[in-house]
Amino acid sequence: MESDILEKKTKLPFEVLIDQEKIHKRVAEMAEEITREYSDKLPVFVGVLKGCLIFMADLIRQCNFPLEIEFISASSYRKGTGSNDFLVLGGASTTELKDRHVIIVEGIIDSGRTAEAILSHLKLMEPASLELVTLLDKPGSHRNRLDIKQIGFSIGNEFVIGYGLDNTQKFRNLPYIGRVLDEK
Ligand code: IMP
Ligand code: MG
User: Fold this and answer.
1) What is the distance between the alpha carbons of residues 116 and 50, in angstroms, rounded to a whole number?
2) Which of 7, 55, 150, 174 is placed for a possible disulfide with 162 were both Cys, Cβ 3.0 to 4.6 Å?
3) What is the DSSP pairing of strand 86-90 with strand 101-109?
4) The one catalytic residue among 58, 110, 147, 182
């Protein structure tokens, strides 16, 4: 009985949306473009936890030039039953970003709220340049117009897991991107 309940709680029907080979190829292209622009600028890659984890690790290992890394975290909370959720930024940034070339690295952009908040927060630190790079984007969900420097893959309004992205904190360790199937 108990194991049945556990199975229902952790099992999530999904299918492969983007396989490892495709991800690897695209991340290599993104790194190439970043290399062309930043190889002599000693950029700071600021990863947005936790979704950036695998993407950022793969991306920076394909950038063969001097760079630094930093992290920021963003959690959204919902107050009561209202749709007015709020966002809290965290992460003790020890890197001085003033006059630095900053690249924000996101796993996925949905409504764009998280990216907007991080962009305006980091702008206050007066970086020399500030750009946003994401592995996945859901353009159909954006709340406002968003300037994204590089997008790995544009997807529809579907829920995806794996390669750093979670469903209730699990599935981040899937080596590919999966699409969650509607439970019927
Ligand atoms: P936002 O709506 O652009 O602010 O995205 C908020 C956050 O929701 C993202 O940073 C992800 O952590 C999460 N998120 C949005 N869509 C997905 C998804 O399809 N899979 C996993 N996490 C997602
Ligand atoms: Mg999440």
Assistant:
1) 17
2) 174
3) unpaired
4) 110
